[in-house]
Amino acid sequence: MTNSRAPLYFAIMGALILGVGIFESWNNALFILNFGLISAIMALGVNLQWGYAGLFNVGVVGFVALGGLSVVLTSVSPVGDAWEAGGMQILISLLLAVGVIAGAIIGWSRLPKNLPRGLIVAIWLIGGFFAFRALFDPAVAAIEAVNPAQAGFLGGLGLPVLIAWPVGGLFAAGVAWLIGKTALGLRSDYLAIATLGIGEIIIAVLKNEDWLSRGVKNVNGLPRPVPYEVDLQQSEGFVSWMERIGADPVTGSTIFVKLLYAVLFIAVIVLIVTLMQLALNSPWGRMMRAIRDNETASEAMGKDVTARHLQIFVLGAAICGIAGAMMTTLDGQLTPASYQPLRFTFLVWVMVIVGGSGNNWGAVLGGMFIWFLWVEVEPISIFLVNTLTSGMDATSPIREGLLDRVAYLRPFTMGLILLLVLRFSPHGLLPEK
């Protein structure tokens, strides 16, 4: 941490979380800590793209959702009946789609220019589309008809859930590569439009393709890398330990599990920050910042700006995908409807701006601080309203009106904090050095 204010800010952040534990509950404090750490990892991914290279990614929600999907595809046991009903047909249809697209690309580049290449490629794509749907649609219908109340999808590979975290990064990196190859050579606003559109497409696919993710029916009961609370409560060793320290085994089990998650998340965040700090202080990091500050001069020095932008865009998306996989693991379920741009794009950008663009520890601080406010603004506001109106009747229109408007304070506070930071510390709480 190069900024002398960093230890003070992190100490204040720790005091805020401890305050939640003392005045509310330790379960709530650990909830804020765990999701704050995950939010910090999302902020690190965006900070890598924006703070290092000036790339404006407004499709963060899509990369986070891909990370969540990776947990299902990696760790859930395969649904045997669904695979028998149409699993292989789904795979064949997807391979056909890839072959049709590849054939169109090869045909466009190799067909003689004196032929109507556009017409030939269009006919090829249209024919391939109908062939794909002829295979794909019956397979989907058969799979989704298999025990739809509890299954209705193919499931996953049944691997340990921790493997899903790097797999989520690979999923997000692959999609980021496709976007980058298309849009990174163009103006920056085209990249924003591309990421925004792809993010919404990914969410739409998760909500509607039941054979893949069960859609809005959600995938529940995902495997966990830590023990279940009920197993701890039935463990004689754990119960005796709780009795020795004078704690309730039920409450102690939930706190212990959340502490284990916190250890895992802290290990991941330390690894990512260490690697990013090493990269930032290397010749590669200095080159990326030089490209960010002046692309024209960098190109004149012989740097391949587009290739470097693609590289860092893919790396940032991979970090967001890892964070998405971690969040779904912590939730224990995949809920496609919960992926909202307000939470997973706008809020992450606020974290980066408030923490300090270009500063890795600033991104971590911004992620935890903004998440703390996102969770605590509403209960604090309710407490203040109840305190200020304690002398009023419970049915007072003033009191009821204030309580009805408490929900609006969450986005209002985010905007207010953003404005205050931009006014008094334009480079964030921990500016880039």
Polypeptide structure, described:
The chain is mainly α. The protein is built from 18 helices and no strands.
Oligomer: single chain
The structural class is mainly alpha
**How much of the polypeptide forms β-strand, as a percent range?**
under 5%
Total number of beta strands: 0
- What would the average pLDDT be, to the nearest integer? 91
Cα distance spanning the termini: 10 Å
H and E order: HHHHHHHHHHHHHHHHHH
Which key features would you list for this structure?
mainly alpha, 433 residues, 0% strand, 18 helices
Topology, element by element:
Elements: H1 6-23, H2 26-53, H3 60-75, H4 80-110, H5 117-144, H6 164-183, H7 188-208, H8 210-213, H9 229-233, H10 236-244, H11 249-280, H12 283-293, H13 295-300, H14 305-331, H15 341-355, H16 360-388, H17 397-404, H18 409-424
In short:
By secondary structure, this protein is mainly α. It has helices spanning 6-23, 26-53, 60-75, 80-110, 117-144, 164-183, 188-208, 210-213, 229-233, 236-244, 249-280, 283-293, 295-300, 305-331, 341-355, 360-388, 397-404, 409-424.
